[in-house]
Design goal:
187 residues, Ribosome_recyc_fac_dom, Ribosome-recycling factor, ribosomal large subunit binding, alpha+beta, Gyrase A, domain 2, cytoplasm
């Protein structure tokens, strides 16, 4: 293979891995009926004049399967944290106990579980699109390399490698989706 014309497979793989990491983060924020500290990660609190993640204004614990507690360090922020959780759309009703905010996780009904599986499928499709976009970028690099003088054999090798990388990441997305949907439907 010629040294002046090379496709950066490591960069493509890193970008595809980034799409997978984003998918894992989105899946973690989906409420499955079990308490998880990661479910409140996307919630931001207006603390000291700027949006701040909850885990930077208090200690987040999961003392039991259906309860998340937040021990807010600064008493002046307790009401702001409670308001941020109420406004977040998580569907959780926080209960105050001094500087501790308790978040009881209600049981999910069948209809809500089906809605969540559809949301999970949308997240997975967005990840697949992101992986395919990275593949498209790689194929565009190949087209430029062909005009720069890359042989057809080399182009075929790179093309196959990019496609294999894409197929691997798409199958990982599908496996994660299956697992998340099974977790959501589990009663």
């Amino acid at each position: 293979m010629s040294e002046e014309i090379e496709i950066d497979i490591d960069d493509l793989e890193r970008r595809m891995d980034g799409a997978m990491a984003a998918l894992r983060t989105e899946f973690a924020s989906l409420r499955t009926g079990r308490a998880s500290a990661s479910m409140i990660e996307p919630v931001m609190v207006d603390a000291y004049g700027q949006p701040t993640p909850i885990n930077q204004v208090g200690t987040v614990n999961v003392p039991e399967p259906r309860m998340v507690t937040i021990n807010v360090w600064d008493k002046s922020l307790v009401n702001k944290v409670e308001k941020a959780i109420r406004d977040s759309g998580l569907g959780i009703n926080p209960q105050m106990n001094g500087t501790i905010i308790m978040l009881p996780i209600p049981e999910l009904n069948e209809e809500r579980r089906r809605e969540l599986t559809k949301v999970a499928a949308q997240y997975a499709e967005a990840a697949r699109v992101a992986v395919r976009n990275v593949r498209r970028d790689g194929m565009d690099q190949l087209k430029k390399a062909k005009t720069a003088g890359m042989s057809e054999d080399e182009q075929k090798l790179w093309s196959d490698e990019i496609q294999n990388l894409t197929d691997k990441h798409i199958s990982l997305v599908d496996k994660q989706l299956e697992g998340k949907q099974a977790e959501i439907m589990q009663v």
